[in-house]
Structures are given as structure tokens and as C-alpha cells.
Design a protein that fits this description.
It is a single chain. The protein is 57% helix and 0% strand. It is mainly alpha-helical. The chain has a domain of 28 residues.
Length: 77
């Protein structure tokens, strides 16, 4: 929708609002690097849906991964 397509009533209502946009200063490279270094690490177990008390998933995921890696060369032949 372009500005020409906006009805006059809506345009008048929108003109009533006054919004102040704050200045956002750009970060320098050192600040970006520091934010990247000190960002909290993601828990890799959350990706698999493993909680602290789900011992079955914790034991079967590595077993399934080993079996997949073992049988992959057979399927590629």
C-alpha cells in the first residue's frame, strides 16, 4: 500500500501520533568481538531434547550415531 492509497481518515489518525526515534550508535569492532566472546554458550543437549533426567535418550543417541556411522559405507557402495 503506497501513501497515495491510504484513506484520508486513516492518514489523519496516523498524523496524531508523534514518535521519537532514539539515536543508535554503531558498535565498533572491539565491542562486537567482546559481545561474541562473552555470549552465553548454548546447551547442545537442548537440540536433541535431552534433559538432565532423561537417561534413556542420553544413552541411545550415541549408540544410534555409532550405528549410522558404521553402516554408512555399506550403503554408499
Amino acid at each position: 500500500m503506497s501513501k497515495k492509497e491510504i484513506p484520508d481518515e486513516l492518514r489523519n489518525r496516523l498524523d496524531e501520533f508523534d514518535v521519537e526515534v532514539p539515536e543508535i550508535s554503531p558498535k565498533n569492532q572491539m565491542e562486537r568481538l567482546a559481545n561474541w566472546i562473552y555470549a552465553p554458550a548454548k546447551n547442545p543437549m537442548e537440540l536433541l531434547g535431552i534433559n538432565g533426567n532423561s537417561i534413556i535418550r542420553l544413552t541411545f543417541f550415541p549408540l544410534i550415531l555409532v550405528l549410522i556411522l558404521f553402516f554408512t559405507p555399506i550403503f554408499l557402495l
